[in-house]
Design goal:
24% of the residues lie in helices and 31% in strands. It is built from three helices and five strands, in the order βββββααα.
Length: 116
């Protein structure tokens, strides 16, 4: 997929360990630990997941149950690639990073001036 700044972007599902399961009204939610960062996650799509299990999470929704070895290796690989911190950043951190990036009035590049 091409992003607004003419670069390839990809959405990641991050593995995390379920520490606690509760309900928020009728929705099953869990506290999930992503290598030290704990977030609330919707567990409705994975009713088989229990406390202590690992799950793949994308935009706050657990998508599938995975084994511990695969989860830990994936977290280690993401850390080594430098993507884990960006994926798990709070909204405030994401906004601060975006503000530091070069800005363009024309993100798709259509108003770029050709230089000779």
């Amino acid at each position: 997929m091409r992003g607004a700044y003419n670069c390839i972007v990809m959405c990641l599902a991050i593995p995390g360990r379920v520490e606690e399961i509760t309900t928020d009204g009728i929705i099953r939610v869990g506290r999930v630990n992503f290598g030290g960062v704990v977030k609330r996650v919707c567990l409705d799509y994975v009713p088989e997941v229990e406390v202590g299990d690992y799950t793949l999470v994308h935009v706050g929704f657990a998508l599938s149950k995975i084994d511990a070895e695969t989860a830990e290796q994936t977290l280690e690989d993401f850390r080594a690639l430098g993507v884990l911190e960006e994926e798990l950043a709070s909204e405030e951190e994401q906004l601060a990073r975006a503000a530091e990036r070069p800005q363009s009035n024309c993100p798709d590049g259509s108003c770029e001036i050709e230089r000779s």
